[in-house]
Design brief:
heterodimer, A: 408 residues, alpha/beta, 17 helices, 35% helix, B: 90 residues, alpha+beta, five-stranded mixed beta sheet
Chain lengths: 408, 90
């Protein structure tokens, strides 16, 4: 027996509970998963705050990403309240037990004067370039827009910084700052894959920019061609959302740590030695800082750099990519970072080991007492490097006040 | 016997092996057994006063002994002890 549209609509209305825009507006935040089933072009004109976008044509394929729990309340809406009824029927067939459709749809919502959000609209080219990100519910166009407006600083365009910079650039991180004062050497190319044979002798920051912009011209590359020292660290790191530490000296690592804690900027830390690597993310005051982990640097003979000890090229490659992964999570605000955990990698055994890290209650940089001492202008003396750094005299650093692009 | 994992940078001091089986019912006991076997490690792991050097972290089953009982942290036979110096390479 053929059915008309009117028959189908009648059946859907009989089967699916409908709620008014006012009912939806009155829900406490998080009480239901709200899903917009319109087409992308409609979503871009505005949508309910906090809603997910799963167009009706993809509802079967993508709803589990937005609403994994089949017994949790889900409210669907479209433009006028019809497509969402049919989509809700589909969800019922899929086993969703608590599905409702918002009557009157987005038109009724807007007509009632209720609040809505207009998403950041990516250009057609960006939609294509980042399409694999846009398909992931945890990233989507909102996450991509976040990345495009995020700023990551990479300390060192070397073994760790090369893969990290390339992947962050590919991911569409809008501003990537690179600090390096060195030039490309032939011996770098065994692992520093952002540089090329024909750029030996060129400044590393310039070479890195060439590769990044060849991969993704969306990225604004900020070059800091200087050595990171106590006198410039506060100025250089200001305004960045996340820092990737890929230097090869302890002094720089301590200087960076102290300034980043003062400025409240997370640092994704990695270091390598021959076949081994260490990785963690220092989120100021949420987890330990570098000084909590290693209160003092080892003597030089116990900690040779890559130029002395050597390193299997792929080791910084792997660790640098893990750094990029941590940085992306920080910028997107998703997942669990390695804050409070130290990940060890052993390439010879292909083995990852995780160690638990804690904040040192007596840390000279990130403990409550150290923060208070900075606030009152009497910073605690730090027994080794970086003690004379100017940022120890400030409370919060300059984060967010100066844009990195403006200083490029 | 506890298994003590030796980081690459210290392996030349222990004949190149990745781990050693050592007797000891505390970190102090295990470290003393290690140093007795490989005396050149002594100055790298311990201060002149016999404390752990601050630049070498020691973990028992993934936990930093500085937040347990330091050198007095008990070690059971099946425990994994890991020495971990800072590394700077990038």
């Amino acid at each position: 027996m053929p059915k008309s549209y009117a028959d189908l609509l009648r059946e859907a209305r009989a089967q699916i509970r409908e709620v008014s825009p006012q009912d939806v507006d009155a829900l406490p935040p998080g009480a239901a998963t709200i899903v917009d089933v319109r087409e992308a072009s409609e979503w871009e004109q505005g949508h309910l705050p906090g809603a997910y976008h799963v167009s009706k044509s993809y509802i079967e394929q993508q709803i589990e990403g937005a609403a994994p729990d089949r017994d949790a309340p889900v409210i669907l809406y479209c433009a006028g309240g019809v497509r969402s009824l049919f989509a809700a029927q589909t969800l019922s067939e899929m086993g969703y037990t608590n599905v409702a459709s918002m009557s009157g749809g987005f038109q009724a919502w807007k007509g009632a004067g209720l609040e809505f959000e207009t998403p950041v609209v990516l250009s057609a080219e960006q939609k294509q370039r980042y399409s694999r990100h846009l398909l992931i519910p945890e990233v989507g166009s909102e996450g991509q827009a976040k990345l495009l407006s995020s700023k990551a600083l990479i300390i060192g365009a070397g073994g760790l910084g090369s893969p990290a910079a390339l992947y962050l650039a590919a991911a569409g991180v809008g501003t990537i700052g690179i600090i390096d004062f060195d030039v490309v050497d032939l011996s770098n190319l065994q692992r520093q894959i952002i540089h090329t044979s024909d750029r030996v002798g060129e400044r590393k920051v310039e070479s890195a920019r060439t590769s990044i912009n060849a991969l993704n011209p969306d990225v604004n590359v900020v070059l800091h061609e200087e050595m990171l020292v106590a006198a410039n660290v506060e100025r250089i790191i200001a305004g960045y959302d996340v820092i990737l530490d890929g230097t090869d000296t302890f002094e720089t690592r301590y200087i960076l740590n102290d300034a980043a804690v003062a400025a409240g900027i997370p640092v994704v830390h990695a270091s390598v030695f021959r076949f081994e690597g260490q990785l963690t993310t220092f989120v100021p005051f949420e987890g330990p800082c570098y000084r909590c982990l290693y209160p003092t640097p080892p003597p030089p003979e116990l900690a040779p750099g890559c130029s002395v000890a050597g390193v299997l090229g792929v080791v910084p490659g792997i660790l640098g990519m893990l750094q990029a992964n941590e940085a992306l999570k920080v910028m997107l605000g998703i997942g669990e970072t390695l804050a409070g955990r130290l990940l060890l990698f052993d390439a010879l055994e292909t083995e990852f080991t995780e160690l638990k890290l804690r904040r040192d209650p007596n840390c000279p940089v990130c403990s409550d007492a150290a923060v208070e001492a900075r606030a009152t202008g009497r910073p605690r003396a730090v027994s080794n490097v970086g003690a004379d750094a100017p940022f120890l005299l400030t409370t919060t650093g300059l984060a967010g006040k100066v844009s990195p692009e403006a200083r490029a | 016997m506890s298994t003590v994992f030796i980081p690459a940078v210290l392996r030349p001091n222990v004949g190149g092996v990745k781990s050693l089986e050592l007797e000891g019912d505390s970190i102090r006991g295990v470290v003393e057994a290690l140093v007795a076997k490989h005396p050149s490690l002594g100055s790298q792991l311990l201060t002149e006063d016999g404390d752990l050097n601050r630049f070498v972290n020691v973990y028992v089953n993934g936990q930093d002994v500085r937040y347990l009982a330091g050198l007095d942290t008990p070690v059971a036979p099946a425990d994994e002890v890991r020495l971990l110096p800072a590394m700077a390479g990038g």
